Amino acid sequence: MNYFALQKKNLRKTYFLILIFMLMMAILGIIIDGLFSSFPVGTVVLIIIASIQVLVGTQSGASLVLNSVGAKPVNEKEFEEKQLRNIVEEISIASGLTVVPKVYVMEDENINAFATGFKQKDSAICVTRGLLKNLNREETEGVIAHEVSHILNKDTLLMTTISAILGTMVLVQLFAWRALRFMTWSGSRRSRKKGKGDSTAYIIFALLIIALAATLFSFIGRITIFAVSRTREYLADAKAVELTRNPKGLSGALRKIAKTQKLKQKVKGATIATAHLFISDPLKRNINNKEGFFADLFSTHPPIHKRIATLENIPPEIVLRELQEL
To answer: Hey, which residues are catalytic here?
Structure first.
């Protein structure tokens, strides 16, 4: 596998996604200008917002993601956290990373982890408290090697950019739908009071168009996430084995993740915009455990039993039966 080619491919995809995002925001601005006859005010405003969002995403994307889940830097006075820091350093040196990623812990009892950062020197790895409590050193090494692989392959660059872009689209979508609901409610009261409609109906229609357009763009953004996430998980698993030379470590961690997914709630702070960053789906959506056309289209992670089977080179049906009996 040519990892240098993979890095260049991810870099090209990142620039392409930023271009698509700018075009989508420009189109949304043109729609707004068309509805309100305000060209080019809406278009210019949304392009400026998109530019700011891209700048913020590229400069502070990792901090935004870490803050959103309440992650804290490791406390090296705690044995488990100091050991985690040592493992990250060991795997980073083995992988050839020039800068060791910053290490964070988030207070959640699930077993999960993610890597983020637009550049290697700004990259960070975050694990849950549940991971520290439940995984042994061998399993933790497997998970950390998986996350380091995402940094090495520049997956984090692509995924952090997608998170920042999708976050903007989701905000526009929420704002439009809430404004529409408020205008519909206030317009209805006004109509009853006056006994007839007024210009509010026109504004409601315009908001409906904007809300539908934002929803469509948000949906396209999610499909983009789904398309790029699954393959990258398999590639990161493969690279993790190459780094640790121990497939049992990561497969053992995935078995424990599958077990705790049945017992715990969703990961705190995880959202649709950040879920694809995690080693397993923090939102516990059933679609990620299924196979078929729709599952392949809408899932962010491959089924865990298939990942374990690939790592251990055994039929996936055997692993699936084992996990179902847990």
So the answer is: 147
